[in-house]
Amino acid sequence: MTWLKCTLIAIGLLLGMALILPYFIAFNDYIPDIEKAISTELKEPVSIKNIRFSPLPRPHLTVDGISVGTNEDIKLNKVVLIPDIFSLLQSPIVIKSIEINSPIISQQAFSKVLELSKTNADPASQKSSPVRVENIHFINALIKFGKVNFGPFDSRIDLNNDGKLVEASIKTSDEALSISIKPDQSSYLIDVYAKQWILPIEPPLLLDELNIKGVATSNDVKLSKINAKLYDGSASGSISLSWFKEYKLNGNLDINQVEMQKIASMLSSKTHFSGKLEAKPIFSASANTADQLINSLHLVTPFKVQSGVLYGVDIQKAATSIIKSGSTGGETRFDKLSGQLVMAHNSYHFTQLKIASGTLAVDGNVNISAKKELSGRINAQVKAVGISTEVPLNVTGTVESPLLYPTGATIAGAALGTAIMGPGVGTSVGAKVGGWVDNMFGRK
């Protein structure tokens, strides 16, 4: 039993040394060498504030204040590494878990991560690592895409003995959104579920429920099944995003019975409309960087809005009052509003516009510039004193303050009709004749 007693004493002494020795080692003395090694690997400047070792409750290393990049593209508040102490004297060294607290990742850093993923996807670039990590846990993480933020969220990544993904999960702090990622041969299966989640992009739509299934590779992601419930309606479709040589976005949606009042109020605080929207948008974009995609977005869709109100403009009043200075304010109720929309370079082009509502019928084209300025022309057919009159109206002003005014020929015709036949019938007949002149010669 003497050998057992001596062995236990030796183990006790070794454990005691393991607990005490870290307090005599100045880990911060190694920071410059560690910063240099990581900077060489990432090809980016790296800064570390403090490193300390704690033997309890489990032996772990804590690294504080890590920043990567000249503009601190990545900031990590605290990183805790828990090693497998029995692997420290062999290769590879096993890190049981890495806990990363409050990381902030910029859009520039995210783009660089994608570039690194392309390199790592090349088998020729892969080499055995002296360190193997089993689990990575992100806590209170935030990704910044310019003015758009995704997060805060928690994420867990489990890796196998070869350092390859077993499973990854992402969940926002409010638990409104959860994402699951699992490997499938050379790709990854993506499963997204959200409930009462607000989109982090403009407009900040509230999704009652969202289900997405897709596949990702190192070069692209294809979301083949998208189903959402929002604002008493639904939307379904597919979206793909690739970043091999440049960023390319393609997608299509089928939107049904979505109430537009709250959505429109997000786009403009003054002028908006209500009604149930049906549309089938097809969209695409390409850019050198991810943050430029929105500026290159091109969208085409037919649309139909039923049982709604167009606030900020009274088309019937503008058509019947024949005011040279134009008409603004009021509202236009309609049974149906339909047309074709083309969006490009942050401007909107509405063609084949048709509005139907009782005694009012409207057709025409309207443009909204990138500066939210209005232009275009509509033809309003109204019934006044028993006569159906078509009045051409020019559209000007801004989205928040639209202005409708009759064309010059319409005003002249209305004035002449009033002089010959008197107000009411004469005005209507004259305006109608003026409208014919406009349609024949395309005057404004």
Mean pLDDT, rounded to whole units? 81
Largest sheet: 25 strands, mixed
Counted beta strands: 25
Percent range for helical residues?
Answer: 10-25%
The helix tally amounts to 7
Cα-based radius of gyration, to the nearest Å: 32 Å
Give the low-confidence spans: 1-20, 408-437, 439-443
% residues in beta strands: over 45%
Shape: elongated
Distance between the termini: 111 Å
Structural class: alpha+beta
Number of domains: 3
Protein name: AsmA family protein
InterPro entries: AsmA-related
Secondary structure elements and their pairing?
Blueprint: H1 2-20, H2 31-42, E1 46-47, E2 50-54, E3 60-68, E4 74-83, E5 93-101, E6 104-106, H3 107-121, E7 131-133, E8 135-145, E9 148-159, E10 165-172, E11 177-184, E12 187-198, E13 206-216, E14 220-230, E15 233-242, E16 247-259, H4 261-267, E17 276-279, E18 282-287, E19 298-311, H5 315-321, E20 331-344, E21 347-357, E22 360-368, E23 374-384, E24 387-397, E25 402-406, H6 408-421, H7 425-441
Parallel strand pairs: 5-7, 5-8, 6-8
Antiparallel strand pairs: 1-3, 2-3, 3-4, 4-5, 4-6, 8-9, 9-10, 10-11, 11-12, 12-13, 13-14, 14-15, 15-16, 16-17, 16-18, 17-19, 18-19, 19-20, 20-21, 21-22, 22-23, 23-24, 24-25
Helix pairs in contact: 6-7
